[in-house]
Design goal:
The complex is a heterodimer.
Chain A lengths: L6 H11 L3 H27 L3 H16 L2 H19 L8 H27 L2 H9 L4 H31 L11 H7 L7 H30 L15 H5 L17
Helix pairs in contact in A: 1-9, 2-3, 2-5, 3-5, 4-5, 5-7, 6-7, 7-9, 8-9
Chain B lengths: L4 H12 L2 H27 L3 H15 L3 H23 L10 H27 L2 H9 L4 H31 L11 H12 L2 H30 L9
Classes of the chains: A mainly alpha, B mainly alpha.
Chain lengths: ~260, ~240
C-alpha cells in the first residue's frame, strides 16, 4: 500500500467501472421481479388467515429477516446443488449469477411480503365493503380497488427495499459474480491504487441510489394522485380575525338578563 | 455428497467460539454509532451552522453507499491517512501496528452512525413540544429538561428503530471477513473448507444468526414494555 493517492485514477476507474453497473442492475431487477411475486404468494396466506400456510409463511419471513443476506447467499450457493441433485438435476455448471438472483429473490420476498401486508391493511376497510356493495366479487375488489391504493402506500417502503437491495448486491462478488464491487476489487491489482477504485465505486453507488430515490418520489406522487390534497390547509383563525368572526347563522346567543 | 446432520451440530459448537467476536463488533458499532448519530442529529435539529450541512452530507453519503464499500474505503484509506500524518508529525505510530479489527470498528461505527442519526432524530421529534415547555414552566434548565423529560420519552419512541438498526448491524458484521477478522461467518467458511462440508456449516451459521436476531427482538419487546409504562392509558 505504498502508492500515494492520485485523483486521475479515480476518474479512470469510474469510467472503467461503468459497464459493470449493468450486472448489478440486472441482479436488482430480476430478483425484485421474482421477489415481489414471492412476496405476494407469502403474504396472501397471512392476509386471508389460511390455517397451516399462515404458520409456514411466518417462519419463512422470520428466517429470511433473521439471517444475514451473506449467509443466505452461501447457503443457497452450496445447498441448492445438493438439494437439486436429490431430484436428479445437475446444476453444478450453472453460473453463480443464477444463485445470486435466487437468494436475493427469496430474501426480498420476505421483506416484500411484510410491505404488501402492511399496505393492504392500510387500505380502508370501507373501500372493500363499498366494492362488495356495488356488486364486485372478491377478486375484482382486490384487483380494482385494493391493489391500486395499496401500491401507492407501498411505494416508499418498496423504494427503501430496492435501495437496500442495490447496496446488498455488493455482496454478490463473494460468490464470484463480477458486478461492481467485484470489478472494483480486481481492477487495481496491477496499479495497486485500491483506494481510488473504491472511491469511484462509492460514487457510482451513490449516484444510482440518488437517481432511484428521485424516481420513486415521482412514482409515489403519480400513484397517490387520487388523494387530492387541499392546496393550502385552512389555517384556524386566531387573534383579531377570531374576535371578529361571524357566528354561524341560527346560533342565538342568550341575551344577558333575559329570563324565561 | 449427502447432507450430514451430525456435522451441523459439530459446526454449531465450533461456531459458538466466534459468537463473542460478532457480538463485540455489533456492540461497538452500535454504541459508537449511537454517539455519532446523536451528535449529528442534535447538530441538525438545533441547526448548528456548519455542522448541520456536514451532518446532512455525511448521512446522505453513508446511506447511499453499501456497508462493504465503507469498510473497503476505511481499510485502504485510513492507513494511508495515518501513515502520512505520522510521517509529517513525527509520531512513532504506523498503521501496520493497528489490529485489523480496529478498522472494522471504525468503518462500522461510521456506517451505523448515519443510520442512528435518523433514528435519534425521529425519536426526538416524536416527543411532544409541550413536554419541554412544561419542563421549562416548572423551572428546569435545558439540560435537565432534555435529560429528565425528553430523552426517556424519545428512547421509548425510538426503541423499535433502534432494534432494527441493531439487527442490521448484527447482519452487517458478517462483512468483517473482508478485513480477515474471524467472526461467525468467517469461522463458518473456515470450518466448511477444512471439512469440505459447506452446506452444513452455513446451516449452523444461519441458525446462530437467527437465534441472535430473535433474542434481540425479545429483548426489545421487554424493554418496550418497561419504557412504555408511562404511556399505557386506562386506569391504574
Amino acid at each position: 500500500m505504498g502508492v500515494p493517492f492520485e485523483w486521475s485514477y479515480v476518474f479512470e476507474y469510474f469510467v472503467k467501472l461503468l459497464p459493470s453497473v449493468r450486472i448489478s442492475l440486472v441482479i436488482v431487477v430480476c430478483s425484485l421481479a421474482f421477489g415481489l411475486i414471492v412476496g405476494l404468494v407469502v403474504a396472501l396466506p397471512r392476509m386471508y388467515r389460511v390455517p397451516g400456510l399462515q404458520r409456514v409463511s411466518q417462519v419463512y419471513v422470520s428466517f429470511f429477516r433473521g439471517t444475514p443476506i451473506l449467509i443466505q447467499l452461501f447457503l443457497f450457493y452450496y445447498g441448492m446443488p445438493e438439494v437439486l441433485k436429490l431430484v436428479g438435476l445437475d446444476v453444478s455448471k450453472v453460473p453463480s449469477l443464477y444463485f445470486v438472483v435466487f437468494a436475493f429473490a427469496l430474501h426480498i420476498g420476505a421483506y416484500a411480503s411484510e410491505a404488501i401486508r402492511a399496505a393492504a391493511n392500510a387500505v380502508d376497510r370501507g373501500q372493500i365493503e363499498a366494492a362488495y356493495a356495488v356488486g364486485m366479487n372478491g377478486r375484482q375488489a382486490l384487483r380494482r380497488i385494493v391493489m391500486p391504493q395499496a401500491l401507492g402506500i407501498a411505494v416508499p417502503v418498496l423504494a427503501n427495499l430496492v435501495i437496500a437491495m442495490l447496496k446488498d448486491t455488493s455482496l454478490a462478488f463473494s460468490l464470484g459474480t463480477m458486478e461492481l464491487t467485484g470489478k472494483a476489487q480486481t481492477l487495481p491489482t496491477l496499479s495497486q491504487h485500491f483506494f481510488e477504485a473504491y472511491l469511484s465505486l462509492a460514487a457510482i453507488y451513490f449516484i444510482i441510489c440518488f437517481a432511484l430515490e428521485k424516481l420513486f418520489a415521482a412514482l409515489e406522487r403519480r400513484l397517490l394522485r387520487y388523494e387530492r390534497r387541499p392546496v393550502q390547509e385552512a389555517k384556524p383563525a386566531y387573534g383579531r380575525k377570531w374576535l371578529n368572526r361571524r357566528l354561524p347563522a341560527g346560533l342565538d346567543l342568550p341575551k344577558e338578563g333575559a329570563s324565561s | 455428497m449427502k447432507l450430514d446432520p451430525a456435522f451441523i451440530w459439530t459446526a454449531f459448537v465450533e461456531l459458538l467460539s466466534a459468537v463473542p467476536t460478532t457480538l463485540e463488533i455489533t456492540a461497538v458499532s452500535v454504541l459508537c454509532g449511537f454517539l455519532i448519530g446523536a451528535g449529528t442529529a442534535l447538530a441538525r435539529l438545533y441547526r448548528v451552522p456548519v455542522l448541520r450541512q456536514l451532518g446532512s452530507a455525511y448521512v446522505t453519503f453513508i446511506r447511499g453507499t453499501p456497508m462493504l464499500v465503507h469498510l473497503l474505503l476505511v481499510l485502504f484509506g485510513l492507513p494511508m491517512l495515518i501513515d502520512s500524518l505520522a510521517e509529517s508529525l513525527g509520531w512513532p505510530l504506523r498503521s501496520v501496528s493497528i489490529p485489523m479489527i480496529g478498522f472494522v470498528y471504525v468503518a462500522f461505527s461510521l456506517t451505523s452512525g448515519a443510520y442512528m442519526s435518523e433514528v435519534v432524530r425521529a425519536g426526538l421529534l416524536a416527543v411532544d413540544r409541550g413536554q419541554i415547555e412544561a419542563a421549562y414552566a416548572v423551572g428546569m434548565t435545558t439540560p435537565q429538561a432534555l435529560r429528565r423529560i425528553v430523552f426517556p420519552q424519545a428512547f421509548a419512541a425510538a426503541l423499535p428503530n433502534l432494534s432494527n438498526s441493531t439487527i442490521g448491524m448484527l447482519h452487517g458484521s458478517t462483512l468483517a471477513f473482508a478485513a480477515s477478522v474471524v467472526d461467525v461467518n468467517a469461522k463458518a467458511q473456515i470450518v466448511a473448507s477444512t471439512n469440505w462440508k459447506f452446506f452444513e456449516a452455513y446451516i449452523a451459521a444461519a441458525v446462530i444468526f437467527w437465534g441472535l436476531t430473535i433474542a434481540i427482538e425479545r429483548l426489545t419487546a421487554l424493554l418496550e414494555k418497561r419504557h412504555h409504562a408511562y404511556n399505557r392509558g386506562g386506569v391504574a
